[in-house]
């Protein structure tokens, strides 16, 4: 233990360090029941802090760490956001959605901790100990974690996605570690080696032992690299453009159809103005082996497809982003039996012609847009180019027809088909999106019924 000026200070050190050990136990139990990729990173950091005895050194630092725990003293989700994360795990939602809910809950906790003044109080205390090696390590740890996160507030405000904010924070943390974090890493390495070889914490019920804390740190260090998937997803979100809310709008149909847009049902016009404002579910039907083979190849090679199918409806979500040039980036997410399937493309109008562009794959589809008799709209792929080169369609046709709900509700049905040319009524495969205008529900990943 560090030198203490009084028995009272020494007692406070011991109690805070005991709380740190308890927090690692709670985290390990919680994340064992409700796992995600970001959980590995949190457990890695918490076990390192416990082995470094950082909570014991500083009361504000301990309060800051306790404020970002996902559980209370009984191991229950501490906030509604953490309860939502736990439900996503129980429901078997894809890892990407569990990570998303973890990030949302964690960002909320970090913001509340800052508002409560825990970070500021620690920095004031640290300045009083400026020049002391151990306190420099505590400041370094804060800089590598909360101090590296510059986009938390924009993420909470919806200007950027939580994954994008976290990805940027990861990049900053790694850069700082490589430039000036060697003393901190050395401290953690020495504390871990000491815990493995000469453990001094006795094991008590509810308190992680020193050797087990070292084991959690080492195992989390190995598995935390899975968070690279969160980083890649965050970088992709950054490249999509700015997140927009349900009130954003694009005049896609008006720019494409001109005066004929007056023949389109207003609900269909509203849908194509911003699909992200609509809550949606999807069902997929692949009738033939050919359709299943095409879907399987597209899913594996391009990452743009869905090979799961059946009578059940998959929970889904539409998301929209605004590119720098003002065009709409449209993301369709389907939660298929614990796997996330994504269709990720731009909708661009050029000289009155609508195009769907799959930027990552260099694909561009020219769409023929026409008004249907019931006020719906048909979007039919007419020409496909790959990096500017024409792609043969082999007599196949992809068409999406959007129909207004017959009962007059704020709902539309979007039916996409893959069929031989001229055989739309007898498709090889079919996907049906049922969408309803629900600005609140549309902004949240759906739960599995």
Describe this structure in words.
This is DUF4166 domain-containing protein. The protein is an alpha+beta fold. The protein is built from 17 helices and twelve strands. A ten-stranded antiparallel β-barrel has the order 2-3-4-5-6-7-8-10-11-12. The protein starts with 6 loop residues before the first helix and ends in a 7-residue tail after the last helix. The model has no long low-confidence stretch (mean pLDDT 87).
Core attributes:
449 residues, alpha+beta, Lipocalin, 2 domains, 10-stranded antiparallel barrel, 17 helices, elongated
* Count of helical regions: 17
As a percent range, the share of helical residues equals 40-55%
| Spatial shape | elongated
Question: What Rg do the Cα atoms give?
Answer: 26 Å
Tell me the strand order in the biggest sheet.
2-3-4-5-6-7-8-10-11-12
| Span of the ends, CA to CA | 52 Å
Average pLDDT for all residues: 87
How much β-strand is present in the residues? Answer: 15-25%
Elements, N to C (H/E): HHHHHHHHHHHHHEHHEHEEEEEEEEEEH
Number of strands: 12
Q: How many separate structural domains?
A: 2
Largest sheet report: 10 strands, antiparallel, barrel
What structural category arises from helix and sheet content?
A: alpha+beta
Low-confidence stretches: none
């Amino acid at each position: 233990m560090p030198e203490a000026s009084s028995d009272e200070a020494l007692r406070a050190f011991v109690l805070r360090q005991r709380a740190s050990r308890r927090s690692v136990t709670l985290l390990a139990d919680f994340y064992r029941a409700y796992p995600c990729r970001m959980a590995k990173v949190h457990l890695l950091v918490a076990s390192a802090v416990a082995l470094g005895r950082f909570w014991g050194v500083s009361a504000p630092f301990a309060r800051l760490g306790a404020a970002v725990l996902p559980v209370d003293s009984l191991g229950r989700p501490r906030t509604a956001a953490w309860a939502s994360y736990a439900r996503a795990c129980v429901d078997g939602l894809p890892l990407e959605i569990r990570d998303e809910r973890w990030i949302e809950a964690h960002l909320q906790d970090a913001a509340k901790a800052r508002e409560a003044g825990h970070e500021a109080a620690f920095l004031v205390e640290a300045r009083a100990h400026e020049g002391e090696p151990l306190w420099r390590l505590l400041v370094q740890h804060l800089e590598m974690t909360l101090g590296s996160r510059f986009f938390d507030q924009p993420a909470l405000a919806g200007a950027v996605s939580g994954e994008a904010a976290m990805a940027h924070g990861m990049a900053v943390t790694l850069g700082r570690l490589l430039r000036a974090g060697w003393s901190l890493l050395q401290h953690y390495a020495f504390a871990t080696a000491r815990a493995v070889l000469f453990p001094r914490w006795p094991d008590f019920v509810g308190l992680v032992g020193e050797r087990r804390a070292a084991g959690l740190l080492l195992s989390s260090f190995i598995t935390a690299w899975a968070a690279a998937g969160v980083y890649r997803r965050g970088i992709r979100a950054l490249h999509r453009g700015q997140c927009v809310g349900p009130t954003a709008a694009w005049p896609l149909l008006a720019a494409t159809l001109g005066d004929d847009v007056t023949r389109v049902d207003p609900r269909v016009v509203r849908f194509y103005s911003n699909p992200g404002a609509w809550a949606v579910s999807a069902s997929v039907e692949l009738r033939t082996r050919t359709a299943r083979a095409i879907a399987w190849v597209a899913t594996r090679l391009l990452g743009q497809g869905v090979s799961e199918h059946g009578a059940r409806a998959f929970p889904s979500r539409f998301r929209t982003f605004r590119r720098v040039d003002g065009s709409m980036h449209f993301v369709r997410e389907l939660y298929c039996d614990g796997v996330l399937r994504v269709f990720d493309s731009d909708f661009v109008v050029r000289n009155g012609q609508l195009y769907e562009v799959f930027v990552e794959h260099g694909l561009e589809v020219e769409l023929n847009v026409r008004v249907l008799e019931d006020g719906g709209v048909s979007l039919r792929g007419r020409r496909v180019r790959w990096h500017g080169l024409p792609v043969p369609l082999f007599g196949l046709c992809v068409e999406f027809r959007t129909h207004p709900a017959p009962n007059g509700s704020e709902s539309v049905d979007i039916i996409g088909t893959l069929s031989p040319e001229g055989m739309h009524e007898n498709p090889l495969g079919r996907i049906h999106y049922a969408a309803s205008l629900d600005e609140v529900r549309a902004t949240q990943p759906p739960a599995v019924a």
